[in-house]
Structures are given as C-alpha cells and as structure tokens.
Amino acid sequence: MHATEWARTFATIKKLIPMWSIPHCIKTKQLNSYTLETLTGLPLARIYNSRRLRAFTPHAGTELAMAELVCMETVEEEEAEDMDVDLVKV
What tens digit of pLDDT does each residue of 71-81 get? Predict the structure, then answer.
C-alpha cells in the first residue's frame, strides 16, 4: 500500500520513511476495491482502493517468494474446489 499521506508534503521525514508497506495478499475484490490479509492469513480491517495498490514481485529464493508460492497454491486449490462443487450442482 502506498503512503499517500506523505506524497504531497515538503517535510524532511518524507525522505526517510518507506513509501510502500510490506506485501499483502488479496482476500476479496469488490469492483476496484480490495480487502487484504497479511502473508500469515490475518485479515486487515479496511477496504483499499486499487489506486493505492501495486503488484509485488519478490526476488527468487527469498522467504517472500516462498510465501507467495504457498498463497498462490492455496488460491488455486480453493478455485479448483469451487469448480468441482459447481460441476456437481449442474
């Protein structure tokens, strides 16, 4: 998430603070807004607009790359289960 509160200021602190937060996983999508969760699965309380979010690509071999693989596998498994349930209902 982008720290927009510091984007249009001349304060010296702007040079020292990170402008982007740590990576999060998207939990649900509502038009152009998203609810997020931490990499450990804890949901965040707010809804975030897509203008404040950017795709994150971790470096290969890092802990974040491994966490992303686990997250993507979980999402793919859930989607496959949803498709299996839809096929059974038809």
Answer: 888 888 888 87
| Number of CB atoms found within 10 A of residue 36's CB | 20
Q: Read off the pLDDT of residues 49-69 as tens digits, 9 standing for 90 and up.
A: 888 888 878 888 888 888 888
Contacts of 65 (CB under 8 A, 6+ apart): 58, 59
Which pTM was predicted? 0.50
What size, in residues, is the chain? 90
DSSP 20: B
Per the DSSP assignment, residues forming a β-bridge with 70 are none
Residue 49: give the domain boundaries: 1-55
C-alpha 69/C-alpha 58 separation (Å) is 10
Q: What is the count of structural domains for the chain?
A: 2
